[in-house]
Amino acid sequence: MLPFVYFQSSGFGTEYWKLQNLAFLHQLKEVTMQYSDDGSNEIEFSTYILKNAQNLKKIVIFLGCEDEQSKAARMVSRIKMISTATIIIRRRE
Question: Residue 50 domain-assigned?
């Protein structure tokens, strides 16, 4: 199992994450992500993981407000996932 990995996404888009060549993605089984209230593009990293982490079983995404939750749910529902991961989107408390 991999140790906790911290990324500060700063709103980078999917193209940025593709260029990072994150070789550990195939090892991910569970991911928990927490995003700030002010980032509108931060969910892009989550979608990148869902598109590329072939062994992912579960991802939990904590967001700041209900509007972000709705936006994230729409984005996630449109992507073509490589795994059959369970996706949980929650409001950060």
Answer: yes
